[in-house]
Amino acid sequence: MKKIIALVLIVFALNGNAQNSKGIFSKDPIINLETWQKHRIYFGFYLGFNSYDLKIDYKTVGPDIQVDNSTGFNVGIVADVRLQEYLNLRFEPGLYYSSKILHYPNFASEKDALREVNGTYIHFPLLLKFSSLRTGNIRPYLLGGVSANLNLSSNSKSLEDNLENRFRMKSWTTNYELGFGIDIFSEYFIFSPSIRGSFGISDELIRDKDPNSPWTGNIESMKSRAVLINFTFH
Q1: How many domains does the chain have?
Q2: Within a domain: residue 188?
């Protein structure tokens, strides 16, 4: 997090490095990278963090499984293709890490009640970027699209299940994503913070061999959902 904050501060340092310059957020700024949005294709990279949760639907009403999530990190690259003046197609493959702990009710033993679910995802989002009219060196935008995750931490091929303390999730999942951000044009590059939600479409849970398993028997579906915050540099 300290490194991410330091990178954010670089933008403002560049903006204020000369006393006689007009800053990005001034009333009448000098227009930076004026022809950038006319580029057909451009690339960048991003750093960020995430908070993954699980949406659990049950077959019958009963005590809910509690999910403790922690803040993970993201890193990846961006390929952007301009389709028209206000519409871009973006591909943002990256590595995402997250960790969750499930607390099951009605277990006397902590060994049975707790299940740790780690995720090391290769994230493949394909997004449409809808940009507004540029105002000075600021250009807000909306994002929407679909994504697929390959979970490198998945143990889907394991023959063991929760009876052997093995909680299993599928390797591939699909999601839809919605969010917004802002392009900030500095003298040498574009800094683009964004926030979006990712919502799982497919069920990720692999059931235990016992259909009446106290860990998976009452679960209709288990889908990931996440808040993703990225700081992109072009």
Answers
A1: 1
A2: yes
Q: Classify residue 18: in a domain, yes or no.
A: no
| pLDDT attached to residue 21 | 47
C-alpha span between 8 and 100 (Å, rounded): 28
Rounded percentage of the chain residues whose pLDDT exceeds 90: 47
pLDDT bracket for residue 222 (50, 70, 90): very high
Give the global pTM: 0.79
Between 31 and 95, whose confidence is greater? 95
Q: What is the CATH number of the domain that holds 211?
A: 2.40.160.20
The mean of the pLDDT values for the chain is 84
- Whole domain around residue 204: which residue ranges? 41-233
